[in-house]
Amino acid sequence: MNFPILSSLILLPSIGALFIFFSKSSNEKYQSSKYIALFISIANFLLSLYLWSVFDKSATEFQYVENREWLSGYVNYKVGVDGISILFILLTTFITPICIISVNATIKHRLKDFLVAILIMETLMIGVFCSLDLVIFYLFFEAGLIPMFLIIGIWGGERRVYSAFKFFLYTLLGSVLMLIAIISIYWITGTTDVEKLYEIGIGEQYQNLLWLAFFSSFAVKTPMWPVHTWLPDAHVEAPTAGSVLLAAILLKMAGYGFIRFSVGLFPVASEYFTPLVFALSLVAIVYTSLVALMQEDMKKLIAYSSVAHMGFVTLGIFTMTQQGIEGSIFQMISHGLVSAALFLCVGVVYERMHTRLISKYGGLVNIMPRYAIVFMVFTLGALGLPGTSGFIGEFLILMGAFKKNFLVATIASLGVILGAAYMLWLYKRIIFGEIINSEVRNMIDLKKFEIVILFLLVAPIIFFGFYPEPLINSVETSVSSLLELYNLNINNSLALK
Amino acid sequence: MENLELILPEIFISLSIMFLLILGVFKKNSALLIYNLTTVTLIILLALLLNLYQVSELSIFNNSYKIDKLATFMKLLTIGSGIFVMLTSSKYIELTKINKMEYPILILSAILGMMVMISSNDLIVFYMGLELQSLALYVLASFNRENLLSTESGLKYFVLSALSSGLLLYGCSLIYGFTETTNFNEILQNSKSGQYGLTFGIVFVLVGLAFKISAVPFHMWAPDVYQGSPTSVTTFFAILPKIAALSVFIRFLYVPFAEMNDQWQMIIVFLSIASMIFGAVAAIGQKNLKRLVAYSSIGHMGYALAGLASGTNQGIQGSISYMAIYLVMNLAFFSCLFMLRRNNEYYENIEDLSGLSKNHPVLSFSLLIILFSLAGIPPLAGFFAKFYVFMAVIEQQMYFLAIIGLLATVVAAFYYLRIIKIIYFDKEKEKFETNHHFGLKITLAISTIFILAYFVYPSWLNQIVSKINII
């Protein structure tokens, strides 16, 4: 396999962005730019589908590895995929075209710049998921701040400046500690190559501090309680497409980082800090669910529900069981689809009414029946009803958690109930009831392109709800080899003591 | 006589200065001609220096003048940025009516002084170079003599700089008193451990040097001088003297006093931490862009010093890479400043940038890149600069310095973001003129592309810099 398929995946959106940036469009609406962006992102999706189909699901090692000299003597440009990362790449390439279609309604000015930012974002996100070198990973991870800052700041709502700054500075603050840890790893082991680091391992005496440094970055990005406060702000102010990217993919970078780096590189420290992660996850699940119940703003409610769902993810990862980790990955993919869909749904009504306050709505079922149906599917997906993808993830995570600790699992189950409460209540207040606000009567049902994007999201949510096998199948080997490595390290360290 | 080949660049620049002076005296209205001839001189100098690049290490003039990789590379940086400074500011000096024939000649003299500083291997030679450079800079700072701020800044710079030169000389005399020599290599041989007088000498010299690169707590002059001087001179100030002073820092610390590094390391660490923190915090409230650059350059010098504090070749190389990337970013930033022109008047307040992105998308995109790079966000060049420095710092397990430094970048990111916010998120104002001088455009284009595309092949700078081994 000589064709550098991963690098093409990474580079293609950037090339498209470059092309759009330099192309001059006489048309005020930038139709041609939009078609170029759409074309590029769909091509990228097809390319990643092809990658998934030729990918060998039974192999434990990384595949399609590209290793080039980059910063000579220190760092190589190394990318590769395993069963875990390929799913996230697919998620990224699937969500991006949907974002691009959705700009039709939501972005009123500087469309060209917006498309450039989204395509650059896609490059960086794919880069994060397939980099196999810590420095390269950091590069992609951090670079994403620039386009996201602009997306929130230029196209956002009223308090966009505050939110953009908060988002940027919070994430940067978390990440600089990770940079120190990465450089330290280089001097401790002589390499930042993830595959080599898996082999040689990092000395136990260093692991705790390094783990904390990585944790500070991932915890902010996940976001875990108590550093989650940037997320509701960022979500509320970001334009719809920005919220979708943020919820669907950016948050997953941290979950992916936990699996790949925290668990993979620092097994002993991960074991040591498991109670901390459990505690923070449980607080996130229960507390933010309660907070979500009290929200009056639709986007804020969904943002808090994201924090709760990501709490499940971190909980699942640190159960260190096959089910728990698989469940976390599944939950991340499913939440990527569901939260993207929910934000798009909010975008649909926001674009018609220009308000996100729940109290202004009510009785939409009479006016927009089609909207009511798709929104129902996503609501049920978010609360994890059997038959939707949300169920599989939560079920597997809880299964893993029960294996590890009964009490933790019981409290986490409480979160499932709360999740159902706030989602159903949200649905009830918006869709059912009397029409109080007369403006609601003037709303029109879903337009054609909205139907397209929402149904594109309905399909995988239901499909994977009934038939999760393709996803589980692709991560199974990678997760079990990760756990094998993990258990080996833990046993070694116990034997030494 | 064959040794003269090694100082051919210095000889050439001295002769050109004299020739241009005579030309300026006898030929009327020759300002523009001399300006252009100066640029040509600098380009020829660059060629002469490239010719010297294969020399690995040679000392001349009784071992008081050194031509080695460090000297040649730093001189290349100095002259290269000198050329770009000349290219960017030609239109500016014409419009602000400071296009006198002395202006380019003073710049050449300052560069000559810097070249002597960079190569010096002797306290006296070093001081000569320093004073030649400083004298030229005093005049340059107050060159716009009808402007109150400019004269003030010249005077301020002169008084404070003279004070620091005095301290520096006092330090030199202490060192001479304890080691009976002014030559760097001989100082190394003659110094015995436990000589506290020597330590005092080092401290005084370091104070003088810290003043030149405006490290905290010797930074007071920088904001006023940066703001008051003509922008073309500020560009010069922000880049060239720092390269020269940093190479003296390297040579002074690592040749004669390499073995006393436990004595001076704490000082450098303090200077570095104080500069990083102060540079980040003090810049937040600034309204004037030139003043803001002054504070940001204070912060950047802190990072360059952090590399030196590590006491290894890796650290020195990190600092040198930092300077190389820093000068490109500053050059790019000042090019943008020169473009903020409306009706033959230059604007330099942050508010003037408001909504720039609507009317000038390309200029604001460059500014975006430059500012994110100054903040050290990957994958732009500024990130790599910090990366190299912190590689060296963490190798020596100076975690405290590394953590403070990186936290300071987060604070600093705030004020860079503020400018970006004003450019991109705020309401637009009147358009600026777009017919810029060719040299200005090309400088901005080259430097922005450098910053943006640096990550594609970052090892080239490493390969050059890794040949500089001082220890």
What's the arrangement of secondary structure elements?
The complex is a heterodimer of chains A (497) and B (471).
Chain A: H1 5-22, H2 31-54, E1 63-71, E2 75-81, H3 83-106, H4 111-130, H5 134-143, H6 145-155, H7 160-189, H8 194-200, H9 204-221, H10 230-237, H11 240-265, H12 267-293, H13 298-317, H14 322-353, H15 364-367, H16 369-383, H17 389-404, H18 406-431, H19 448-466, H20 469-496
Chain B: H1 8-26, H2 31-51, E1 57-60, E2 65-68, H3 69-95, H4 102-119, H5 123-141, H6 148-179, H7 184-190, H8 196-212, H9 221-228, H10 231-254, H11 261-282, H12 289-309, H13 313-338, E3 341-342, E4 345-346, H14 356-359, H15 361-375, H16 381-395, H17 399-425, H18 438-453, H19 459-465
Antiparallel strand pairs in B: 1-2, 3-4
Helix pairs in contact in B: 1-2, 1-4, 2-3, 2-4, 3-4, 3-10, 3-13, 3-18, 4-5, 4-10, 5-6, 5-10, 6-8, 6-9, 8-10, 8-11, 9-10, 9-12, 10-12, 10-13, 11-12, 11-17, 12-13, 12-16, 12-17, 13-15, 13-16, 13-18, 15-17, 15-18
How would you briefly describe this protein structure?
Chain A contains 20 helices and two strands. Chain A is mostly helical. In chain B, helix 4 runs parallel beside helix 10 and helix 10 (231-254) packs antiparallel against helix 13.
Could you characterize what this model shows?
The complex is a heterodimer of chains A (about 500) and B (about 475). Chain A is mainly alpha-helical. Chain A has one domain (about 5-495). In chain A, about 75% of the residues lie in helices and about 5% in strands. Chain A contains 20 helices and 2 strands. Chain A has helices at about 5-20, 30-55, 85-105, 110-130, 135-145, 145-155, 160-190, 195-200, 205-220, 230-235, 240-265, 265-295, 300-315, 320-355, 365, 370-385, 390-405, 405-430, 450-465, 470-495, and strands at about 65-70, 75-80. Chain A has a two-stranded antiparallel sheet. In chain A, strand 1 (about 65-70) and strand 2 form a beta hairpin. In chain A, helix 3 packs antiparallel against helix 11, helix 7 (about 160-190) crosses helix 10 (about 230-235) and helix 11 packs parallel to helix 13. The longest helix of chain A has about 30 residues, at about 320-355. Chain A is globular. Chain B is about 75% helix and about 5% strand. The model of chain B has no long low-confidence stretch (mean pLDDT about 90). With about 475 residues, chain B is mostly helical. Chain B has a domain at about 260-470. Chain B has helices spanning about 10-25, 30-50, 70-95, 100-120, 125-140, 150-180, 185-190, 195-210, 220-230, 230-255, 260-280, 290-310, 315-340, 355-360, 360-375, 380-395, 400-425, 440-455, 460-465, and strands at about 55-60, 65-70, 340, 345. The longest helix of chain B is centred in the middle third of the chain and has 32 residues, at about 150-180. Chain B has 19 helices and 4 strands. Chains A and B meet through strand 1, helix 5, helix 6 and helix 7 of A and helix 16, helix 17 and helix 19 of B.
